[in-house]
């Protein structure tokens, strides 16, 4: 029987059921009326839907070509607004930035890699399907990488796999982008995808990425191993190459389709959330660089320019669950990170940084008026970062890239901020040890990364050693704060939440059940 260590305990996404009135994380953010960048990007994306996934211009319908050319000519003055650049300040030492520095390339949200306008070099498509078009889900991704600087940006070990082995021996690992739950969001999808990538790397097995509408596939480097496409075409001979995943004609596996033909050849690590570093092997940092490449996320360059974290800036990520509630009633799990953790992290940061930078708060738009977030602004002088709202529905991905670029980061018990810190290039990451259980198996996710500083909020004690921090986290994870220290916990760590009516009613319930 699967254990919590294998599958991960209940995922943070399940907590969304506690407050169905909350807007989805990917909902449209408020966009200033005078900002046109999102509209421009949408128009450009729509102009490509019928064209970008085909192998060549010759195979395109004439009408599609004419429409595309007209739209591009109309939008030519705005081409600079589509360019995306990687911050050179914080990722200068990473393999990705080294390659992009050498090639002077920039990356856009719609995964087009374009050279600076002065060079007049045509854009290089990275063949990321536009999943808004249902037909793209039927096509096979482009896997025959060339040696252009754009392709080197996304090159990971799996692309070295070749199709020289016999077809009868072909086996592949499919990237699991489900997140372990039908409603799983980005951070959860990264965990299930990561175990797929790690197993493929460790076994030298090719990786297959099937198109879907998951948030994970917004990342431009999530792609199949080299030559997998050629092998699929060989095994699924008779299927329409442009509709390989949807073709159900008689010539395509007798109407059963290519996926059914490959079913026994593809392994997928499903059945759980895979939120445990123990599944990665004895060295949880062994594949960190490969995961950084595979989950690469670009930073947008808009006009006016976005504010990015400076070398001494401090970024706090806040993620609460179910509004202003402190505990989950059924389980007693802690639903909101306490102000005390961020205050301690800021004090530690001020003792180590030579010059104080700006203090940023990154959080979902719906949580910007949360009492704890407002207290962070008032008492710590922090500023809520909102500029990624200009990207509309894709603002969440901009926030993720922003946190990755920070030199100093304090994260919440959240898969989203966990990944932003782990994949980022921060010199110091502040990691909270909660005073009780939280909505994900947090104690299984303490990295051995020397950049991390772990802080026990309840006992006001910090650790730089992963083993000691993990032991303390395990001790506190066994406690039931509702039955033991509920009143001390509430009044001592969450006074700002008691000012709301929902929290006062919640406190009455807590105190009643703690007798």
Q: Biggest sheet: strands side by side, in what order?
A: 11-10-9-12-13-14-15
Strand content: 5-15%
Radius of gyration: 24 Å
SSE-based structural type: alpha/beta
Helix content: 25-40%
Low-confidence stretches: 1-28, 30-61, 72-132
Could you say which overall geometry the principal axes of the C-alpha atoms support?
Answer: elongated
Query: End-to-end distance, in Å?
Result: 36 Å
Domains (count): 2
Keywords: Membrane, Methyltransferase, Transferase, Transmembrane, Transmembrane helix
Biased composition (Acidic residues): 13-25
GO biological process, one term: methylation
Region (Disordered): 1-29
Overall description:
Strands 11-10-9-12-13-14-15 form a seven-stranded mixed β-sheet. A three-stranded antiparallel β-sheet has the order 2-3-4, with no helix packed on it. The chain folds into two domains: 83-294, no CATH class; 306-513, no CATH class. The chain contains 16 helices and 15 strands. The protein is elongated and about 70 Å long. 31% of the residues lie in helices and 9% in strands. Strand 10 (359-362), helix 11 and strand 11 form a beta-alpha-beta unit. By secondary structure, the protein is of the alpha/beta class. It starts with a helix and ends with a helix. It has helices at 4-7, 37-48, 62-75, 95-103, 149-152, 186-203, 228-235, 258-262, 288-294, 339-352, 371-380, 395-405, 415-423, 466-477, 486-493, 501-513; strands at residues 84-85, 106-107, 112-114, 124-125, 172-174, 207-208, 266-267, 299-300, 314-317, 359-362, 383-384, 408-410, 428-433, 452-456, 461-463. The longest helix has 18 residues, at 186-203.
């Amino acid at each position: 029987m699967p254990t919590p260590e294998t599958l991960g305990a209940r995922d943070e996404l399940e907590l969304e059921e506690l407050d169905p009135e909350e807007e989805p994380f990917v909902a449209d953010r408020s966009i200033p009326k005078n900002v046109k960048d999102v509209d421009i990007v949408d128009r450009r994306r729509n102009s490509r839907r019928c064209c970008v996934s085909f192998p060549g211009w010759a195979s395109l319908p004439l009408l599609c070509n004419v429409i595309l050319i007209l739209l591009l000519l109309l939008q030519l003055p705005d081409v600079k607004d589509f360019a995306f650049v990687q911050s050179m300040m914080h990722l200068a030492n990473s393999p990705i930035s080294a390659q992009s520095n050498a090639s002077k390339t920039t990356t856009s949200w719609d995964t087009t890699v374009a050279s600076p306008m002065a060079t007049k070099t045509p854009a290089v498509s990275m063949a990321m399907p536009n999943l808004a078009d249902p037909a793209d889900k039927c096509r096979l991704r482009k896997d025959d990488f060339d040696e252009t600087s754009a392709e080197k940006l996304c090159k990971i070990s799996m692309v070295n796999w070749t199709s020289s082995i016999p077809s009868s021996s072909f086996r592949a690992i499919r990237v699991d982008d489900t997140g372990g739950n039908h409603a799983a969001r980005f951070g959860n999808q990264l965990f299930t995808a990561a175990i797929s990538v790690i197993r493929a790397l460790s076994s030298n097995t090719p990786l297959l990425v099937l198109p879907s509408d998951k948030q994970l596939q917004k990342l431009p480097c999530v792609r199949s191993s080299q030559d997998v496409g050629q092998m699929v075409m060989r095994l699924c001979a008779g299927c329409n190459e442009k509709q390989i995943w949807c073709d159900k004609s008689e010539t395509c596996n007798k109407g059963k389709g290519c996926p059914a033909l490959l079913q026994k050849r593809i392994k997928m690590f499903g059945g759980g959330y895979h939120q445990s570093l123990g599944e990665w092997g004895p060295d949880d940092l062994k594949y960190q660089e490969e995961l950084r490449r595979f989950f690469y996320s670009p930073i947008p360059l808009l006009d006016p320019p976005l504010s990015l974290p400076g070398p001494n800036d401090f970024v706090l990520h806040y993620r609460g669950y179910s509004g202003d509630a402190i505990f989950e009633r059924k389980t007693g799990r802690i639903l909101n990170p306490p102000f005390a953790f961020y205050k301690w992290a800021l004090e530690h940061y001020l003792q180590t940084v030579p010059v104080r930078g700006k203090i940023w708060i990154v959080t979902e738009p719906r949580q910007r008026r949360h009492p704890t977030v407002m207290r962070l602004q008032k008492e710590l002088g922090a500023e809520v970062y909102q500029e990624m709202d200009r990207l509309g529905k894709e603002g969440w991905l901009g926030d993720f890239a922003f946190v990755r670029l920070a030199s100093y980061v304090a994260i919440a018990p959240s898969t989203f901020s966990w990944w932003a810190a782990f994949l980022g290039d921060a010199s110091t990451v502040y990691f909270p040890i909660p005073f009780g259980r939280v909505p994900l198996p947090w104690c299984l996710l303490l990295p051995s990364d020397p950049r991390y500083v772990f802080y026990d909020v309840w006992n006001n004690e910090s650790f730089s050693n992963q083993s000691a921090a993990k032991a303390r986290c395990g001790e506190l994870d066994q406690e039931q704060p509702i039955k033991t220290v509920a009143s001390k916990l509430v009044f001592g760590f969450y006074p700002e939440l008691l000012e709301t009516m929902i929290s006062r009613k919640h406190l009455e319930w807590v105190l009643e059940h703690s007798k």
